[in-house]
Design goal:
single chain, about 270 residues, mainly alpha, two-stranded antiparallel ribbon, 8 helices, 2 strands, about 70% helix, about 5% strand
Length: about 270
């Protein structure tokens, strides 16, 4: 018995058509032609259905990966933002003293450590690996939810802006302890407890680096204050970008939750 799925189906059919033409059985020829048309149509429909099913399964997989990676990246950004905001609060607390808006006082060790490290700008992770894979392989259009696609496009734009700013911010660093050694003196002191902050590295076992800030000289140095203010501006901009990405990712998480729920209902 021959069926549409058999490789020899069309060979058998061709023989039948040839035979019918020889016997001039035109009705049978017409029937054979109709069988061919129906067979091709059904085959194409089955193939289209199968391709659509594979695309739906792949879309589900991509959405689930996006959701998982977005959640993880939100957690990273929240932690990074806490560190940046705490750093900003310490530096802000020293500003009024440095800029002579309060009576002179000693800069605390914590404030001094943050001032000496005010040139450090770490770029927080911003990658969504599945998004980059989709863009590289052309699978981005497998996503059918327009809100998801629009949000991901917006994230790419925001990410590229932040990366460009980071490259600019670290292009010229004001390492204040190196540029103003008389204002920030680094001492090598014994470690008194495990909770002692270790600024820098390779201080040796049992020792740590401890910067000491001269607030009087700092208040009088316009060059120092200008460079310090520049460092603060960069930290503030970096904090702003991290906050924007966090908020964008939180919105993406909400949209993905709705999209995944919708797909499950449809299935």
């Amino acid at each position: 018995r021959v069926t549409f799925a058999d490789p020899g189906f069309f060979i058998v059919l061709l023989r039948r058509v040839t035979q019918h033409i020889r016997t001039q059985n035109w009705f049978a020829v017409l029937v054979d032609f109709a069988i061919v048309v129906v067979g091709v149509f059904v085959g194409l429909q089955v193939q289209d259905w199968n391709d659509a099913r594979k695309e739906r399964l792949e879309e589900h997989r991509l959405l689930n990966r996006l959701y998982s990676e977005t959640q993880a990246l939100i957690g990273v950004h929240k932690e990074e933002l806490k560190v940046l905001q705490a750093r900003g609060e310490v530096l802000t607390g020293a500003n009024s003293v440095l800029f002579s808006q309060e009576p002179p006082r000693k800069i605390t060790p914590v404030e001094c450590r943050h001032i000496a490290g005010s040139h450090v700008y770490r770029r927080p992770p911003d990658e969504l690996p599945v998004l980059d894979e989709m863009l590289e392989t052309g699978r981005f259009d497998l996503l059918q939810e327009q809100l998801v696609k629009d949000n991901l496009r917006g994230y790419v734009i925001l990410r590229e802006r932040a990366r460009a700013y980071y490259s600019e911010a670290v292009n010229e660093l004001f390492r204040l302890h190196s540029r103003h050694p008389s204002l920030i003196v680094v001492h090598r002191v014994p470690t008194t407890s495990d909770s002692d902050a270790n600024w820098g590295g390779l201080s040796g076992d049992g020792y740590r680096w401890l910067p000491e800030c001269d607030s009087e000289k700092m208040r009088e140095s316009t060059a120092f204050l200008n460079e310090y203010a520049d460092n603060l501006s960069r930290i503030n901009s970096l904090t702003g970008f991290v906050a924007q990405r966090r908020d964008h990712l939180i919105e993406l998480e909400r949209i993905l939750t709705n999209a995944i729920s919708k797909k499950r209902r449809q299935d």
